[in-house]
Amino acid sequence: xxxxxxxxxxxxxxxELNNPVPKKPVFFMKPETSLLQKNNPFFxxxxxxxxxxxxxxxxxxxxxxxxxxxEFAKNYYDEIGLGIDFTARDLxxxxxxxxxxxxxxxxxxxxxxxxxFLPKTNFTDIQNIDFSLKIxxxxxxxxxxxxxxxxxxEIIAYVSQFVSLxxxxxxxxxxxxxxxxxxxxxxxQGFIGDEELFNFEIK
Length: 203
Ligand code: ZN
Fold this sequence. Notes:
By secondary structure, the chain is mainly beta. It has a single domain (3-33, 51-201), classed as Fumarylacetoacetase-like, C-terminal domain (Fumarylacetoacetate hydrolase, domain 2), CATH 3.90.850. It contains 4 helices and 14 strands. The chain is globular, with a radius of gyration of 16 Å. Bound molecules: zinc ion.
């Protein structure tokens, strides 16, 4: 499986990092080895001093597809989840400054924690889902999928022009504003509405 991540999909987050608002989705990938499941702890890596949380709605692909039309994209997923796109912001800033790829900052081991998934049928409108992140019991990030620049179906249509989607692939759909550094000892809890989907510690 592969993990596809969308960058700059919320205007407020693009602005907080001084990035332009994109005209087309920006995507990058993380390998399977970046997954962190079952609320296992995240061990702070020694190569960075500035690991940021990015809370993101995640879509799990349930069917093989290529060149998927937007109007059919909804047939390619039936579960919605929540994850963190951990980013070594110091390494990313250095890579960006040199025009280099971002893998060093995004694709490292356990940089993609993922929580439980919920059936799509739980939601009346996929593009109106509230989600939030608590760190040490304080709300640190809140978002709603209505604020996405590119909808989930637009993302699937766009990405599948370039990359075939396979069963089990995950799409991290971008972070709202409010990204910040995590510290050893922090406890991160992710919610869709009131339901807790992940709960893990930074060690
Ligand atoms: Zn992200």
